[in-house]
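pasting for the record
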Amino acid sequence: MNIQDANKLFKQGQHAQALEKIEALLSAKPKDAQARFLKGLIYTEQGRTADAIKVFTALTDDYPELPEPYNNLAVLYAGQGQYEKAKVALEMAIRTHPSYATAHENLGDIYAKMASQAYDRALQLDKSNTSTQTKLEMIKDLFGGNTRSARATVAARNAATGIVSAPKPIAPAATPAAAVIASTPAAAPAAVVASAPAKPLVAITAPEPAKPLAAEKPSANASEDVLKTVRDWAAAWSAKNSKKYLAFYAREFKTPDGESRSAWEEQRQERIAKPKSIHVDVKDAKVKLLDNSHATVSFKQFYRASHLHTSASKTMELVKSNGKWLITEEHAGK
């Protein structure tokens, strides 16, 4: 049994059988990225949107450098009308893979959909605003006209979220199932924002199939890069530069008390702004590299401010994303 067998069943529309094979694969290799990606595709085809979102979200946590899970999350969020979440997911896909054309294109469609909604709201408040009416008509003309073709049925079937997928296929008709969530003809429009017809969109094509990450030996200077990140983090804190300080924390950072990211950031900004001066020292730092993109660092933190002097042991978990080490979790007293 291998991923190709499950992939073949998926392409044949035998989703239940494909899922059974995938579960068997994952019981032996629970972290297999390719199998988990295909599982997300199967859930999507079965209409199990919440389960698909969980699968793709977990993939972004475990493999933040892969753009495809972010892209597919964006489609699922868009299908629920959660355009802000879709936008954030696509921005993450682009951050991890700046040359990912599909994500750029889909992000443009999300922006257009959000703009269309904003113009609609503006017109509801002021129906005499001819400028807003013109802008709204321009968006409809720009994106809606492309659906009037021999492939209009396919476009209409998939346009409920405001996005129609179909960038140029990366392979002929036998495009691997793991590379797409739903197939569309090669000549179909690359992306369309349109009025919502009956059936919701279930997918946007992704580029190459998500592949399991090979276990690579950490590079020789990776430890130094991690240490430099921690020192720069301390320096930003010492300089009371909250914007730079917060930029060291990954999007998926686990806040200490489980509060929202915005609430945690607001609290950190207040604590950084309050003292007249801050000085943070990092000493006896020890780095443990798990692989080329995951590391743990433990150190003694010495904090001196105008009103408080403390010291404590600290452990940080970091991930390398887009060439930068970012903090995903931190613990005091470990």
